[in-house]
């Protein structure tokens, strides 16, 4: 029984890691008032950038590959920042376009890497018989650090004020546009880091559509956890466990495989509906999704 529980926890942590990293990035965006639905595309380009740097050479620097993934995610997120903050385009439309651009570009440019070996991977740490990825440790530490930063520091309060009342923040001397751009870039870097985990640790290979909808679940997870980083840990573990059940039950049940494949996405709709019923959506930043124009009321 202990072995089963340990396996379930390890698998839930593994699948939950990219969800947690991407969710933290989305929380950072949305706390500043910017919705970014392009997380799936950001994760895809991050995974491709990491694999492109690390593949084909046994001497490749894996941490340089991680940095490349974060840089690629931030670079693509810059398009969203320019469109929504500078040009004041619709944030939802821009995010959807970003998701399509990211996944399409990663699929096209990644064809040359299909089948290439990854000689080295980011090795898991063995903690007394319990293995854990350095990415997972980093994600947990980032969640705690972000919670502290948002709740107990001046810069964190500044970011939150931009998401709640940008006009008031502007009157107090805060550069609303710059704050939002930096939040979007930081969120893109975290989504790219989530992609790096997939390429360098979890799957250790490149394949088209390797994100498999995790980015969309991360976007929904933000609402489910009420825009709170520490709650995101529990939410990521919950959905990670659902993925574990999906693979565990396939082949051991008369239920068609497609049912298990759809289960995480169906449960996303369920938990979002429950969040709406209990008023969780009311916890959203007051200015979320709205462009700020100085002087407008």
From TrEMBL:
Organism the protein comes from: Deinococcus caeni
InterPro entries for this protein: ABC_transp_permease (IPR001851)
Transmembrane segments: 12-28, 35-56, 62-85, 92-110, 130-150, 181-200, 206-225, 230-247, 259-277
Annotated localization: Cell membrane
Coiled coil: none
The protein's name: Riboflavin import permease protein RfuD
A Pfam family recorded for this sequence: BPD_transp_2
Topological relation to the membrane, as annotated: Multi-pass membrane protein
UniProt keyword terms in alphabetical order: Cell membrane, Membrane, Transmembrane, Transmembrane helix
């Amino acid at each position: 029984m202990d072995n089963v529980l340990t396996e379930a926890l390890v698998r839930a942590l593994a699948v939950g890691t990219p969800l947690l990293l991407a969710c933290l990035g989305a929380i950072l965006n949305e706390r500043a008032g910017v919705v970014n639905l392009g997380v799936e595309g950001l994760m895809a380009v991050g995974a491709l950038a990491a694999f492109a740097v690390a593949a084909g050479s046994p001497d490749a620097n894996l941490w340089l590959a991680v940095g490349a993934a974060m840089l690629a995610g931030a670079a693509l997120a810059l398009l969203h920042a320019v469109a929504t903050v500078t040009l004041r385009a619709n944030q939802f439309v821009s995010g959807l376009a970003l998701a399509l651009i990211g996944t399409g570009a990663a699929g096209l440019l990644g064809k040359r890497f299909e089948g290439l070996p990854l000689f080295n991977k980011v090795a898991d740490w063995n903690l007394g018989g319990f293995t854990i990825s350095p990415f997972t440790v980093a994600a947990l530490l980032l969640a705690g650090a972000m919670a502290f930063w948002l709740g107990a520091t001046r810069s964190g309060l500044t970011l939150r004020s931009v998401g709640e009342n940008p006009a008031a923040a502007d009157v107090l001397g805060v550069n609303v546009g710059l704050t939002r751009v930096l939040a979007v870039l930081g969120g893109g870097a975290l989504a790219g880091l989530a992609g790096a985990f997939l390429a360098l640790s979890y799957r250790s290979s490149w394949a088209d559509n390797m994100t498999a909808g995790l980015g969309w679940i991360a976007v929904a997870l933000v609402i489910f956890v009420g825009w709170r980083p520490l709650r995101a840990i529990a939410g990521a573990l919950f959905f990670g466990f659902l993925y574990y059940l999906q693979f565990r039950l396939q082949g051991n049940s008369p239920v068609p495989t497609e049912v298990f494949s759809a289960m995480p996405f169906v449960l996303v709709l369920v938990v979002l509906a429950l969040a709406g019923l209990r008023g969780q959506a009311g916890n959203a930043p007051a200015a979320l999704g709205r462009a700020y124009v100085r002087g407008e009321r």
